[in-house]
Structure prediction request, 65 residues.
Amino acid sequence: MIEGIVFPQDFRPESVLFYPHQGDRLHILSDDGGLKQDGITECKKLPSEQRSFRSIWVTVRAVQS
Prediction:
């Protein structure tokens, strides 16, 4: 859990990406391979061109102690 972040339903954080040009923002990717895209087939079992993933951008703020 990352404090202060509410993830979308069924969002499964898998990777965090940092981009130098984004400064205080980071990109979190979801592992959606096990989600059923058409109600029957898991995303990871679909043809490549039909697969998808979700991501969110998060702005990081400094916390003073």
Notes: The first strand starts at residue 13 and ends at 18. The chain has a mean pLDDT of 86. The chain is about 0% helix and 25% strand. The CA atoms of residues 17 and 45 lie 25 Å apart.
